[in-house]
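Usage

Read records sequentially. Each one opens with the input sequence:
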Amino acid sequence: MLNIVKRLLKLADNYAKNLKIAFVISIFEGMFSKVPIMVVLYVIVKMHRNAITIRDAWISGIAIITSVIITALLRRIVDHFQSGTGYEIFERERMKIGDRLKRLPMGYFSEGNIGNVMAVITSDLVFIEEHSIRTLSKIVTGYINMIIGVIMLMFVDIRLSIITIITLIVSVVMLNKLQKVSVRNSELRQWTQSRLVSSVLEYVKGITVIKSFNMTGEKGDKINREFKKYRDVSIDFEKELVPSLRNFENCFAIATGVIVFITAYFTLNGELDMSFMLAMLIFVFQLFLPFKVLGDVSAIVRIMETCLDRYDLIINEKIIDEDARDITLNSYDVEFKNVSFAYEKENILHDISFKVPQNTMTALVGKSGCGKTTIANLVARFWDVQKGTVSIGEKDVKEMTCDSLLRNISMVFQNVYLFNDTVINNVKFGKPDATKQEIIQACKKARCHDFIMKLDNGYDTVVGEGGSSLSGGEKQRISIARAILKDAPIILLDEATASVDPDNEKHIQKAINELVKDKTLIVIAHRLSTIKNADQILVIDNGKIMQSGTHEKLIDKNGQYQDFWKRRTKARSWKISKIAN
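and closes with the structure output:
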């Protein structure tokens, strides 16, 4: 049980001093909380001896009122140091886990970890935040008050204190058994919860496909099974926990009965005063209460430990730039030297080498799955190469922290994601400290200012999750505005006009022209007509560079590029002929 206290103090880090201050104050709170019982014992002894006076009554009343007030004040101070500190701790931890996630390799998110990450952020941290400080207070207060109670009892009657100590030893054994049950079941419960979160995410993300293929029943049944499994695990948890918890509480009930019996026996034998027996009948029912609380919080403690275990797995995951340093680049040419790369066991790139000189445009051409997007991802260091080097400005990207690398890169891809926030905040994502005038200027260059002003609240319009209230072309232009605002020297462009209508294509092409001025540009080309003016075209096939050169040179050579161009030209010349009746 004390292990969770150590873990929470470690998690608190520099806030731990506030919690330790609260622990110290809790000792005094525990002492003052016992004053009314001692006063009652004093009054009963006086009354039994017919020696009580008005003065004694006044002293007793003042002592009880004073102790209650002081106890309340100390509790308020403890809450101040604990509760307020708890929110500070978990605000910091959420920011820490967010920073950690952006520095993990993309492979981490494609290995079935999404459900686990979502469970930690949306469930585990919330559970710990809601229960940790209150539980911490109950554990510390329980141990402190129990120790104070035993010490007080030693001064009254050593025999009864020995019975109390034996009871506590037995209860600790029972508590350990209770904790073992909790450990086994809480781990299963949290694992089942991760499965449930993953299933819900999969269902929500794929709802369009599910509805279009009329598979709502089948996929709904899968989620239903996960909900039922989580329900059954939770019920089994309670069923196995209750007997152990009942035995733990029975231990105190039996001990209370034994102390009452022995006290009465000693009193009838004349070994104890009647006044002492009456006082013990009051005191004994308060003696074990603080420690009994530990049984009530045992299940919560175990779930918290499982939550912390899962959180630690993410925090301790090896980050991609662990040994890197913050580097300021002086030039922005991009170079691949003998690069080979594989997703797990699937080889994608095979010993490729090329250079993109600063302020030039290089286009990547090839069939789907040939490795074009992988090259762009390796420039941004979403993954690390298994062989060779990727460098920018003659600096290996592995030597650079993610922040120092990515501040030099802007990315515009076909699949645009906008946050459930205002238009201005989505654009501001490219430069958090940008002024509104800078944002408007970027939007004008991206050809999206006019349609933004037609929205209900202009730049303050909330676009919905993923930009659901905007068309694909509108989202694309906002993403380009974001990149223009960032003004990074290197642009990675997965040709943004490939899947939009002609009207949007015209606006987007003008926006891209504004974006790429005086930049080092790598374009993943889908429409060959848009890369005719590229300084360099690389034809990729099966992870290898098959051809390289300008459009003019490649069009005159036999090879894949010439074939691509001929097929493209032929496709543009097709027309619908009238079919005779």
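Summary fields computed downstream for this record:
- The chain has 20 helices and ten strands.
- Residues 97 and 250 are 43 Å apart (CA to CA).
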